[in-house]
Amino acid sequence: MTGAMTRSWRKRDVAILLIGFAFLYVPIALVIIYSFNASKLVTVWGGWSTRWYGSLLDNTQVLDAAWLSLKVAFLSGVLSTILGTMAALVMSRYGRFRGRLVFSSLIYAPLVMPEVIMGLSLLLLFVALDMDRGFWTLLIAHTTFGLCFVTIVVNAKLAGFDRSLEEAARDLGASPIGAFFQVTLPIIAPSVIAGFLLAFTISLDDFVIASFTTGPGATTLPMRIYSQVRLGVTPEINAISTLMIGTVLALVLFGFALSRAFRGGGRAVGRA
Amino acid sequence: MSAGKPKPHRRKLALGQRVLLAVPFLWLLLFFAAPFLFVAKISLSQAVAQRPPYEPVFAWSESWNVFVEKLGQLSLSAYGLLFEDDLYLASYLGSLKLAALATLIGLCVAYPIALAMARAPRSWRPALIVLAIAPFWTSFLIRVYAWIVILKDEGLLNHLLLSLRLIDQPLQIYATDWAVLIGIVYSYMPFLILPIYNAIDRQEPQLVEAGRDLGATGLSAFWRITFPLSLPGVFAGALLMFIPAVGEFVVPDLLGGSDTLMIGRTLWNEFFANRDWPTASAVAVVMLLVLLVPLLLYERNEMRISETRR
Q: Which residues contact A269 (CB under 8 A, 6 or more apart)?
């Protein structure tokens, strides 16, 4: 079976993949390379330099925005992960219950809902509730879409979950909550971590919804980047971009390593 | 529920289960569903120059009689504007056209990649999947920005083509609809590749082998077996791209010209530049109505996929 697939894995397929991935990666690579360009002009290569990173470190506006974005991303990531894991348990365990259709519609719709609509509607809610816009409204907004992504990721893992392990724990006297934390969570941990990372990066990346839901004094990093991009292409934006790509890459690698460790633990539980 | 009896069609939930359900359910009701009521409400208000910039039609605290009385004063002026000014119709049509074109082009680019991934040796596939998803993990804004660097009149593409003497005038792609198309196709590519890859990967390879044993050529086996069976994935990916692309703001704003009309950008300008909240809300309501059918199709499709997986 695999043999037939491999035999038909021809040069053409390799070429398609090379071109396809070049299309995906060349633009990102160019941003990274040009962040080290000593020249201010994109078309002129002035030699390697880290001067733009240096000038970034002096830019307190950017640093403040980055710090705010990281705080919101981390906290909304944690909240999304808790709420999303709960929702995934509901989706995968409850079978048909009254309101299931509404529940899953509420999970799937935010994944495709145009951001301008979600941003505007949340803002109008916050105005109606007379909430001061800023950190907390950002946190609520980001948790709302983050939790849906976590639900999808964790639900996919729970779909293939062997429930007899949980039942064995219950037979041995564990409470439902105890069984979840001691048996289920260690096994689904890789997808819970993946869900957290997804919610974290999407929050860190969000520009449109943040623009609607934040207030004066709470400018996020994407909002800073956007206003700089509107002013024109500068090497400093390349440097911020590279740092953001580096941060996310490091996080994803860290998450990968972490879930590997958990997967080992999960297998041990499975064997026991 | 007593043991032995067949499970009822709809289960009653225990208290603990109800709490587990209630927390995320209430969160989404309050912060995702309820806000649409406010959009509908504001879209029926009059625009005025104050903070917040609309004249509230009715407050929640009013008695029923006052409420009914005020229903008569609901203002459809924001919706009237949508019909009077060609800008809005042109924006809706422009959005639908660009999103549909981008989805079509995207499918033509993503399908061969997904197919090649599914035909790769089994040991390569996890790495290929990671490579296909990874761009999704890098900032959307930065990926769009990268195309400004490439496509600008004095950008890298023109620089390259000019120095190779393939052209003698810089190509004007930046600030046109072409740049918007490229930007949307590029930034939504992972959404297309993965569902198509999954739909091809799930197929039994014996099907194609049987077809070939019965005399089908490689190409006709593809068109008559692999492709039709992958259509659910194509459909899922297309909706996953098309719906958000219709409301896209960042791509048309950064890569498009001033004449690139897309409804997400029009809504943004109504809200942030004109501070006309009722019109922005009316634009959102009509956009939701326009997207209702694709949204319902998408939801049904996703639910069917998750049901078959369980």
A: A165, A183, A186, A187
Q: What is the distance between the alpha carbons of residues A130 and A190, in angstroms, rounded to a whole number?
A: 39
CB contacts < 8 A (A, B): 260
pTM: 0.87
| pLDDT interval class at B231 (50, 70, 90) | very high
User: Which chain A residues have a beta carbon less than 8 Å from that of B243?
Assistant: 112-114
Distance CA A76, CA A69 (A): 10
pLDDT digits (tens, 9 = 90+) for A76-134: 999 999 999 999 999 888 877 888 889 989 999 999 999 999 999 999 999 999 999 99
Residues in B closer than 8 angstroms to A207, CB to CB, are: 140-141, 250
CB contact under 8 A, A114 and B150: no
Pairwise CA distance, residues B21 & A180, whole Å: 15
Contact B13 A97 (CB under 8 A): yes
**Other beta carbons less than 10 A from residue B67's beta carbon:** 13
Of B38, B140, B295, the CB nearest to A109: B295
Which residues of chain A are modeled with pLDDT < 70? 1-9, 262-272
pLDDT confidence of residue A51: 86
The answer to whether B245 touches B107, Cβ cutoff 8 Å, is no
Name which of A6, A120, A249 is nearest B271 (Cβ-Cβ). Answer: A120
B1 band by pLDDT with thresholds 50, 70 and 90: very low
Angle at B45 between CA B42 and CA B48, to 5 degrees: 110
* Residue A13 at interface with chain B, using a CB cutoff of 8 Å: yes
The reply to whether residue A17 touches residue B310, judged by beta carbons under 8 angstroms, is: no
Q: Would you say residue B16 has pLDDT above 90?
A: no
| Cis check: omega of the bond before B232, within 30 degrees of 0 | no
| CA–CA dist B50, A55 (Å, integer) | 40
